[in-house]
Write a structure and sequence with these properties.
Length: 449
């Protein structure tokens, strides 16, 4: 029985063109399709990539998570380019507002699942491509099942596409792929962007200038992922006259719990302005990177920041500062362990403090230092304090630390730690308030650590 695609379709009212396309696709996927026709359709790719490159592409298995503006253009390009096994994952349906940016959706597709819409249109272009449709929301609990090998085989994905615009599920996908060594590329925010010349491919550590990339990067760093994931992002900055995230209208708040307005729990409810061309460019850039990677075609993207040495220096400063502070409470203390990692340092220095002193805004010679002196001690012991085998550990939390220049930190340690001054005696009210807000933000984010 041929499946009906349209929202208003009935089993007996199948579009004739859909029926013809499905019949051809069934034959093609069963091997009943002239190989010469396929090679002719892919001739330009074949000349560019070579026979070996095209063969790798045609054998590839790619998973696209998120089939909206970015994901649909990516999937369409992959199918047109020769990728023969594509899994599509998305819980949502095509809406009228989807049509300004979706790669293939038409009015006839409004109301049907996005994964079905893509299959419906793409088998009319590349009937030999096999699709595996998963109409459900991705999250960490179902990651192993949704990213499992191609049906009936042990073939793992050659690449996974993150085209998700929800931070929780985006982070869950990237963390799972990172931990399980699945090649993945992430698309950051195309919303509110308008300059195609600012779109680049770079390591996720280098992403800048949009809320989605900033939040994703922060969450990943808290979970130990600081680099190693390619991402498509824009360096375009906001400015006067440019589109911004639209606030939820006041009348919507009056209807009840704002979270209830989302399509699903914990999903966004605000309206994101999107210029229809930009998700397309993001999606095509993602597809381009995958094609080059799978075929082995030479390519480079912006290298990650060479900041590891800087992070190590900051971590050493934190460790030294905590030990010196500990000796004020426990003279002769040595061997203090501090529960801070390089990932934590990268998260705090780059993502929370933007690589600048919170005191002066200076971006050079920055360190992290405890803001307030503890009332009693900054050290915990696993046994007796005088037992040489007792572990000595700092009670330091991420939200205790602030970013300063080294010169500012030395002055801070002298006045606040050694002389016992309160921070309100050392800094003006604006600085104290700014630090308080920043520390509250860090404390809120620590739950994702």
């Amino acid at each position: 029985m041929v499946r009906g695609f349209g929202a208003a379709s009935t089993p007996t009212a199948v579009d004739k063109e859909d029926a013809r396309n499905q019949a051809l696709a069934q034959r093609a996927q069963a091997g009943d399709f002239d190989e010469e026709l396929i090679l002719e359709q892919l001739a330009r790719n074949r000349v560019f990539l070579g026979d070996d490159g095209l063969a790798k592409l045609r054998d590839a298995f790619v998973v696209v998570v998120g089939c909206g503006g970015v994901g649909s253009h990516c999937a369409a390009s992959l199918a047109r380019s020769g990728v023969s096994n594509i899994r599509l994952i998305d819980f949502d349906q095509v809406t009228l507002s989807s049509l300004n940016r979706h790669a293939v959706a038409t009015l006839a597709d409004v109301g049907i699942p996005k994964v079905q819409c893509l299959e419906r249109r793409l088998i009319a272009i590349s009937p030999w491509v096999k699709f595996d449709l998963r109409q459900e929301k991705f999250d960490g609990d179902v990651a192993a099942r949704l990213l499992n090998p191609w049906k009936g085989t042990d073939r793992k994905p050659d690449y996974v596409v993150d085209a998700i615009d929800n931070i929780d599920t985006k982070v869950a996908l990237l963390k799972y792929c990172h931990d399980n060594k699945l090649p993945v590329i992430s698309s950051m925010g195309a919303g509110c962007k308008s300059d195609p010349t600012r779109i680049i491919v770079g390591d996720i550590a280098t992403t800048t200038d949009d809320g989605l990339s900033r939040s994703t990067r922060r969450r990943l760093k808290l979970q130990g992922v600081t680099a190693g994931i390619p991402a498509v992002y824009s360096t375009e900055r906001t400015g006067e006259g440019k589109a911004e995230l639209l606030p939820l209208p006041e009348e919507e708040f009056q209807k009840g719990t704002v979270g209830d307005l989302a399509a699903m729990p914990q999903f966004r409810v605000r309206i994101l302005p999107v210029l229809g061309t930009m998700p397309a460019i993001f999606g095509l850039t993602v597809a381009n990177h995958i094609i080059l990677s799978i075929t082995g075609y030479p390519h480079d993207y912006v290298p990650a920041k060479g900041r590891d040495k800087m992070y190590e220096g900051i971590l050493n400063y934190v460790n030294g500062s905590e030990e010196k502070l500990g000796r004020l409470f426990h003279p002769g203390l040595i061997g203090l362990k501090t529960p801070i990692t390089l990932n934590d340092v990268a998260f705090l220095s780059d993502d929370l403090y933007s690589g600048r002193s919170i005191i002066s805004g200076i971006p050079t010679r920055i360190v992290l230092v405890r803001w307030e002196k503890p009332e009693e001690t900054n050290v915990s012991f696993t046994g007796d304090e005088n037992d040489k085998d007792s572990q000595r550990a700092s009670k330091l939390r991420l939200s205790d630390l602030v970013c300063m220049t080294k010169e500012e930190a030395l002055k801070h340690e002298r006045e606040v730690f050694k002389e016992g001054k309160k921070v309100v005696e050392v800094y003006d009210a604006d600085i104290v308030d700014k630090v308080a807000r920043k520390r509250a933000e860090i404390a809120e984010l620590e739950k994702y650590r």
